[in-house]
Specification:
- The complex is a heterodimer.
- Chain A has helices at residues 23-34, 51-55, 112-115, 119-126, 155-165, 215-225, 274-280, 296-308, 310-320, 366-385, 459-479; strands spanning 2-4, 11-19, 39-42, 59-63, 87-88, 135-136, 142-145, 148-149, 169-173, 176-183, 186-193, 199-209, 239-242, 245-254, 267-272, 285-292, 327-334, 343-350, 356-362, 389-393, 416-418, 442-444.
- Chain A is an alpha/beta fold.
- In chain A, the strands form 5 sheets. In chain A, strands 1, 2, 3, 9, 10, 11, 12 and 22 form an 8-stranded mixed β-sheet that branches.
- In chain A, helix 1 links the parallel strand 2 and strand 3.
- In chain A, helix 4 packs across helix 11 (459-479) and helix 8 (296-308) packs antiparallel against helix 9 (310-320).
- Helices cover 43% and strands 19% of the residues of chain B.
- Chain B contains 2 helices and 2 strands, in the order H-H-E-E.
- Chain B has a two-stranded antiparallel sheet with strand order 1-2.
- Chain B is flat.
- Classes of the chains: A alpha/beta, B alpha+beta.
- Chain A binds chain B through residues 250, 296-297, 299-301, 304-305, 307-309, 311-312, 377, 380-381, 383-385, 387, 390-395, 398-400, and chain B through 2-5, 7-8, 10-11, 13-15, 17-18, 20-21, 24-25, 28-30, 32-39, 41-42.
Chain lengths: 480, 42
């Protein structure tokens, strides 16, 4: 059933109340409803993007330049899947283990095997094929990897009809979380307010916050600060926030076309093998080589190659007329070290519901830059050694101490951390089952759970985690 | 000046400032010239 908040009774009761109808919330709500659990799914926006809803996302960033926070995510049914590109990739199995480069805070309390049972259904939801196994890229220390593009699936469009038709699921639109009421140590009810100031209360046995990689932290910080929902362990909420750094490595002239396997998007992908991560003490990253067609840029590139490498340059100039797409852009997307100082915090300014606006503290560190640089250099060196391509490195790649250039699209719009999973309250906000430490019936879904981010686009992992949480919660509801 | 020309200039200017990368590449029989990672005979 689909209702405006104002159409709902003043006091609603349900089994599980899911706050936020993005990929995590919708996946979770569908899973719970399919198991027979009664669900109320609360979406702060409506069926379409609206300025009044997006305005609630206004905030500011301290540190490195970052995107406008009101544009970096979408606040309506389907959430940020309304503007994603659809790239999918599982986290590597070694992403769940402590990384040699930063062992203290990179480990997950679960492993890839814990998510594997949900992989097939997640691929079905995202409408993607399976992933090819990684394979060594010669003696480079890198693996060739595969990514998939999910349509891209817009969760709001895809599931609106199903959510509206479900008998044991009520989808409430324009339901902005504005308060909470406790009963002892348990959350008894949450309060929601629409844009006209009408308020409704939802009582449930379990509550799940699934509002995205920034809002999950912001909401918990606010409800804790105003005393509505006292968190027994608030210290890490908002902390260890992460993105995926995007950086240009350089330009590539391919000399052996058969050494690469460009996909239907003219891209080939590479990532460090676990041994390289261990040996070089770097974080994870992936490179993508995308071929480009003849342009002034490629003309100048080949002229430049002729100057510095006359024999190869002459050969390339000759080839250029025969094969137009022999040049490519080499870019990287890299893991960010989870750092205590990178965090979602509450500002002084407030939104229309009285909630403090986000202040996002975000900075890249030297390890982030070195990890991408060493990955790119390994690729460039291998290509020359194996005589399959030559790479012209960007200036920042040639400077051992340079930080990431942070020009243009410097990050992936991937908001991770803030309510990280941990073995205990000293390393996490939630446990391995996504339950907030110290509270028996409050749970979190989405990429804010990630203790570390690898390089993989997060949505595939978000969906698998939501399916897993759905099974866990439906079992809890059934046995109580 | 076009973006491409600026890139070429930046690459060439960066070359003499670098102390760490050429020896690193030399260990693999490679060299850095104008920002390009090259091999003997190129």
């Amino acid at each position: 059933m689909l209702l405006e908040l104002s159409q709902a009774p003043e006091a609603i009761e349900t089994g599980v109340c899911v706050v936020g109808a993005g990929p995590a919330g919708i996946t979770l709500a569908r899973r719970l409803a399919a198991s027979g659990t009664d669900v109320v799914l609360c979406e702060a926006g409506g069926l379409e993007v609206s300025p009044q809803s997006q305005k609630v996302y206004d905030g500011r960033t301290v540190g490195d330049p970052y995107f406008d926070l009101s544009m970096a995510r979408l606040r309506y049914l389907g959430g940020s899947t309304g503007h994603w590109n659809g790239w999918c990739r599982p986290l590597d199995a070694h992403d769940f283990a402590p990384k040699a480069a930063s062992p203290a805070m990179t480990a997950w309390p679960i492993g890839a095997r814990d998510l594997e049972p949900f992989a097939a259904e997640a691929r079905d939801i995202l409408e993607i094929d399976g992933f090819r196994p990684d394979e060594p890229f010669g003696a480079s220390g890198l693996n060739r990897i595969s990514l998939r593009i999910a349509g891209p699936v817009r969760f709001g469009d895809k599931y609106r009809g199903e959510l509206a038709a479900a008998r044991n699921l009520r989808l409430l639109l324009h339901a902005n979380l504005t308060g909470a009421r406790m009963r002892g140590r348990e959350v008894a009810a949450l309060a929601f307010t629409d844009f006209e100031g009408r308020t409704r209360s939802v009582a449930a046995r379990h509550f799940v916050v699934a509002c995205g990689g920034i809002e999950n932290s912001r909401l918990l910080l606010w409800l804790n600060a105003k005393g509505d929902l006292p968190l027994p362990h608030p210290g890490l909420v908002g902390r260890y926030w992460m993105e995926h750094h995007e950086a240009t490595i350089g330009m590539v002239v391919v000399t052996d076309w058969d050494a690469f396997r460009f996909d239907e998007h003219a891209i080939d992908y590479f990532a460090p093998a676990p041994a390289m991560l261990e040996r070089r003490r770097i974080l994870n990253a992936h490179l993508y080589l995308k071929t480009t067609h003849y342009s002034d840029e490629t003309k100048y590139l080949l002229a430049e190659l002729l100057c510095v490498a006359p024999t190869l340059g002459k050969w390339a100039m000759d080839q250029f007329g025969k094969r137009l797409a022999c040049v490519g852009h080499l870019k990287a997307s890299g893991e960010q070290e989870p750092l205590h100082g990178n965090r979602v915090a509450l500002g002084e300014e407030r939104d229309r519901f009285g909630m403090p606006r986000t202040v996002l503290h975000w900075r890249a560190c030297a390890l982030d830059a070195r990890s991408i640089r060493e990955t790119g250099l390994a690729f460039a060196a291998h290509c020359a050694r194996a005589d399959i391509a030559r790479v012209r490195l960007e200036p920042w790649m040639q400077d051992d101490g340079a930080m990431l250039p942070n020009e243009g699209d410097a990050a992936g719009f991937h908001h991770m951390g803030g309510t990280r999973m941990g073995e205990g309250a000293s390393t996490g906000v939630v446990d391995r089952n996504c339950k907030v430490f110290g509270l028996p019936n409050l749970w979190v879904a989405g990429s804010s759970l990630f203790p570390s981010g690898g390089y993989a686009n997060p949505t595939y992992t978000i969906v698998k985690l939501a399916l897993r949480l759905g099974d866990h919660l439906s079992a809890r509801v059934a046995t109580r | 000046m076009s973006h491409s020309r600026r890139n070429i200039l930046a690459g060439l200017l960066a070359l003499p400032l670098l102390a760490w990368l050429p020896p690193l590449l030399a260990r693999s029989g490679l060299k850095l010239r104008g920002g390009w990672v090259l091999r003997d005979g190129d």
